Amino acid sequence: MEPAGLAVGVLAIAGLFNNAVDCFEYVQVGRNFGQRYQIGLLKLDGARLQLSRWGQSVGLSGELEDIQSLPQAFESAHDMNKAEQMLGQILELFADAEGISAKFKTRGGRAEQELLVHDTQTDLEPAALSLHNKMRDLTIKRQTQTPLRQKAKWAFYEEKHFKRLIEDITSLVNDLIELFPAAQESQKQLCKTEVAEISAKENLPMLGAAVKSQDKLLEEAIIEAMKQKTSVPNITFSGSHNSGLQLANNTGTISDLRWGGSTLFS
């Protein structure tokens, strides 16, 4: 494919990427999910964050009109076509799920209670709401600022379809990541930035649970950040006239702590 044709293709992919990230914005979750609603929603947020990170790493974020030069990641017409297909599949997954939602609502014999949906601003625990909003903000920043057609919100009423959507999207995003290995180093750095911005004490463990076995790069960044937060330096007291009270908080095993020549923990 000629460079001009590739450039046009990249603009088309940027549009698909922007629409795919936007689709997450309109998903709601039925109240019949109960307590599973919170972790489920955070897993969906995690899938959106991972997709947005991939897009930024390959040069698809920002203003569409600013994509004047061909991003290095898309120098192969084959890879570009594959990426276009995968992004199209993500859009199809959302369309199919929305269709299932519509059929559920119109099926006869439904009690009004079955069609109630959760409100993220009132139904999430404070820590989960903070994490949800932060991940949403990060992904929106990575979208292009080209206005998109506003869509109506729709809801998942059956958990099996919700789980399947997250699994299928995660699989496609991981395929996109594997398709452009040169961009993975950039994604690792973006993961570190994400963790730094979501580093409130109560957020990292919750984020780790949400992306476990779903987003390998972010999971690794979280583990590394939590190790740094809980690391405890070795402490040695020497001499024969030490006195006073030493207070500390420790997570994990203490070793090589000595007092007056005697090892207290080893």
Q: Would you spell out the secondary-structure blueprint of this structure?
A:
Blueprint lengths: L2 H21 L3 E3 L6 H22 L19 H30 L13 H4 L2 H17 L11 E3 L2 H21 L4 H14 L5 H9 L4 H15 L5 E2 L19 E3 L2 E4 L1
Parallel strand pairs: 1-2, 3-4
Antiparallel strand pairs: 4-5
Helix pairs in contact: 1-3, 2-5, 2-6, 2-7, 2-8, 3-6, 7-9, 8-9
Q: What report would you give on this structure?
A:
This protein has 266 residues and is mainly α. It has helices at residues 3-23, 36-57, 77-106, 120-123, 126-142, 159-179, 184-197, 203-211, 216-230; strands at residues 27-29, 154-156, 236-237, 257-259, 262-265. The strands form two sheets. Strands 3-4-5 form a three-stranded mixed β-sheet, with no helix packed on it. A two-stranded parallel sheet has the order 1-2. The chain is globular.
Based on CA atoms alone, the radius of gyration comes out at: 23 Å
User: Within the largest sheet, what's the order of strands?
Assistant: 3-4-5
CA distance, first residue to last residue: 65 Å
Order of helices and strands: HEHHHHEHHHHEEE
Q: Describe the largest sheet.
A: 3 strands, mixed
Q: How would the global form be characterised?
A: globular
Instruction: Tell me the strand percentage band.
Output: 5-15%
Structural class: mainly alpha
* Average pLDDT taken over every residue: 82
Number of helices: 9
Helix % is 55-70%
Uncertain ranges: 243-255, 257-266
- The number of strands is 5
